[in-house]
Structure formats: structure tokens, C-alpha cells
Design goal:
The protein has about 220 residues and is an alpha/beta fold. Helix content is about 35%, strand content about 20%. Strand 4, helix 4 and strand 5 form a beta-alpha-beta unit. The longest helix is centred in the middle third of the chain and has 11 residues. The chain starts with a strand and ends in a 5-residue tail after the last helix. The chain binds D-xylitol-5-phosphate (DX5) and zinc ion. The site of D-xylitol-5-phosphate has 22 residues, from strand 2, strand 8 and helix 7.
């Protein structure tokens, strides 16, 4: 695998000055911008929708990595594509109320990268049949809904298993990622790191991003 990709989650950014926050992480070496979309149904929190993603698109040329924690993703996918998403990740759980194979195809047909994700409680078996139909597997390392939770090391077996089955796809981890848990995730085969708190609550964003990459020099 090549270089580690760092995707700051703007959920932890200061939304009263979102433009400044995005310019700061971009200057600090971020590779992608991770946008967490929550609908108050699939997860117990509400964040923001396609309109804000469109604003973010206007603020940066970095790829926008959109993580849909919503019901009926198929209904909203076209709006996020129109807003400028480069990758869209959907949940595999039945509670997300969509046809997983169909939604993944819909994302790809629109020329966008397709990602699939699973909650910590969900078995790896549910995503395994899709591994050759996706560009990225997102292994949630916290139960989704809120930033600032602790990393669940027990999820590393999913990362390991996915990497042993497929060397082509991106494997992303999301939740509680800091310098230490990033190192553990990379060791197990992850190559994309989502981080909210450990970047946006740091005083030096560039140092935080370097540390996530394991570059302490
Ligand atoms: C969790 C979200 C994450 C979250 C990560 O529901 O999907 O992207 O923002 O935040 P930290 O890095 O604070 O755990
Ligand atoms: Zn996320």
C-alpha cells in the first residue's frame, strides 16, 4: 500500500468559521475532507446535509469523503454527488433501509467512488460479499453518532480480515483515531485515517496530521 491518507472529519471543526478551519487543515497536509452526515434516525444525532457539503466544495479542491449515517441513502445520493462528493460511503446495516448493492452501483454509475461501512456491533460477514464491488471499506472504530469516543481495538480483526481478502481497496478507520490508534490501524492494514478530535482540538494541525502518519520527526 502507498502513502497513508489522512481525512480530517469536520464534525469536530468550529462551524462558526468553517472556511478558516478547512483552509487550515488543507495547509496542514490533509489529503481528504471527511463529511459526516447524520439524520437523527440511523444515528442519534443530526449534523449537516448536501448544502453544507456544497459550501465545503467551494472552499477546497481536496477530495470530499462523504460518510452517510442516514436512512434511505439511495434517495439522497444524487444530492451529495451534485454537491461535489468524490467518495460516498453507506452503511450495510438493515436499519439504514436501502438496497446496499443497488446504492453502491448508483454511486459508481455517477462516477463517484463507492464505500461501504459497518458498525462495531455488525459482523464482518455482512460486508464480505461486497468487497469486490467497492472502492473502500470503512471499519467504524466507535459506534457512529458522536465525535470524541474511544477507539475500539476489537475492530482490528475486521481490518486484518479485509486486507487479507483484498489488497486493492482502501481500508478506512473512523472513530477515536489519534497517533497511537492510527499506528495500530496501519499495522493491521488500514491506509485511510479519519480523525476529528485529534486534529481539530489540537493547537498545531500540521503536527497532529504528521503524528497520525507516524512521522514524529
Ligand atoms: C462518528 C463519525 C466520525 C467522527 C470521528 O460518528 O463518523 O467521523 O467524527 O470523530 P473522532 O475522531 O473525534 O472520534
Ligand atoms: Zn465518519
Amino acid at each position: 500500500m502507498g502513502r497513508v491518507i489522512v481525512a480530517p472529519s469536520i464534525l469536530a471543526a468550529d462551524f462558526s468559521r468553517l472556511g478558516d478551519e478547512i483552509h487550515r487543515v488543507e495547509a496542514a497536509g490533509a489529503d481528504w475532507i471527511h463529511c459526516d452526515i447524520m439524520d437523527g434516525h440511523f444515528v442519534d444525532n443530526i449534523s449537516f446535509g448536501p448544502e453544507i457539503v456544497g459550501w465545503v466544495r467551494g472552499l477546497t479542491s481536496l477530495p470530499l469523503d462523504v460518510h452517510l449515517m442516514i436512512e434511505h441513502a439511495d434517495h439522497y445520493v444524487p444530492r451529495f454527488i451534485k454537491a461535489g462528493a468524490n467518495s460516498i460511503t453507506v452503511h450495510v446495516e438493515p436499519e439504514a433501509k436501502h438496497g446496499v448493492a443497488k446504492t453502491l452501483q448508483q454511486i459508481r454509475d455517477a462516477g463517484c467512488r463507492a464505500g461501504l461501512t459497518l458498525n462495531p456491533e455488525t459482523s464482518f460477514d455482512s460486508v464480505e460479499p461486497f468487497l469486490d464491488k467497492i472502492d473502500m471499506l470503512l471499519v467504524m472504530t466507535v459506534h457512529p453518532g458522536f465525535g470524541g469516543q474511544s477507539f475500539r481495538a476489537d475492530q482490528m480483526q475486521k481490518v486484518k480480515r479485509a486486507r487479507s481478502l483484498n489488497s486493492r481497496i482502501d481500508i478506512e478507520v473512523d472513530g477515536g483515531i489519534n497517533a497511537e490508534t492510527a499506528r495500530i490501524s496501519i499495522e493491521n492494514g488500514a491506509n485511510v485515517l479519519v480523525a476529528g478530535t485529534s486534529i481539530f482540538h489540537a493547537t498545531d494541525y500540521a503536527k497532529a496530521i504528521r503524528e497520525l502518519r507516524g512521522d514524529t520527526g
